Amino acid sequence: VISAITGHSPAGGCVLAVASDNRIMAEGEQYIIGLNEVAVNIQISQNLVETYAFWIGQGLASRYIMEGKLLNGKEALSAGLVDELVPLEQVLPKAEARMQQYLQADQEILVNTKSKLRKDLLGKLDLNAENSLKEAATLWWKPEIRTKMEAYVKSFSNKKKG
């Protein structure tokens, strides 16, 4: 899976990116990526923490998740969250070229190699997601969490109007 990042990628966009094999992002200060779940009062799963840390390291992952840090392209490249920064019009062609490269490889060898490269990560993942979903759903619907989330959305909306 290759992510061609051509816009804002906080939260869910970042989740899709860290689940990818490669991430190619458009250059420009207007594009951001990161996990801001804690900042907006959304429960983050252990699997997401582990996957994020796989790409950028445990220390940065801890700091960035707790801060809700959204990185611009240069920061994301430096941290290892994205693999390449290119002009907007080159993002899709670069992603397609990378995909063609992967398609040329023997698929069994590619899958086996990827499994070996991610052995430590795979060993850390909780493959029984039922508990994580219950935890997230319980917290999602707590009245005080909903109030905080609504306040965050309202503050964001007010910034756009101002």
Keywords:
globular, 6 strands, 9 helices, 162 residues, alpha/beta, three-stranded mixed sheet, 2-enoyl-CoA Hydratase, Chain A, domain 1, three-stranded parallel sheet
Order of SSEs: EEHEEHHEHEHHHHH
User: Could you give the order of strands across the largest sheet?
Assistant: 1-3-6
Number of DSSP helices? 9
CATH homology superfamily: 2-enoyl-CoA Hydratase, Chain A, domain 1
Number of domains: 1
Determine Rg (CA atoms, Å). 17 Å
Describe the sheet with the most strands: 3 strands, parallel
State the shape: globular
Low-pLDDT segments: none
Class by helix and strand content?
A: alpha/beta
CATH architecture annotation name: Alpha-Beta Complex
CATH topology: 2-enoyl-CoA Hydratase, Chain A, domain 1
| Total E-strand runs | 6
Describe this structure in words.
Helix content is 59%, strand content 12%. The longest helix is centred in the C-terminal third of the chain and has 19 residues, at 143-161. Helix 2 (46-56) packs across helix 3 (58-67). The chain is of the alpha/beta class. It has one domain (2-127): Alpha-Beta Complex (2-enoyl-CoA Hydratase, Chain A, domain 1). The N and C termini lie far apart (39 Å). It has helices at residues 12-18, 46-56, 58-67, 73-79, 91-104, 107-117, 119-124, 130-140, 143-161, and strands at residues 2-5, 9-10, 22-26, 32-34, 70-72, 84-86. The chain has a three-stranded parallel sheet with strand order 1-3-6. Strands 2-4-5 form a three-stranded mixed sheet. The model has no long low-confidence stretch (mean pLDDT 89).
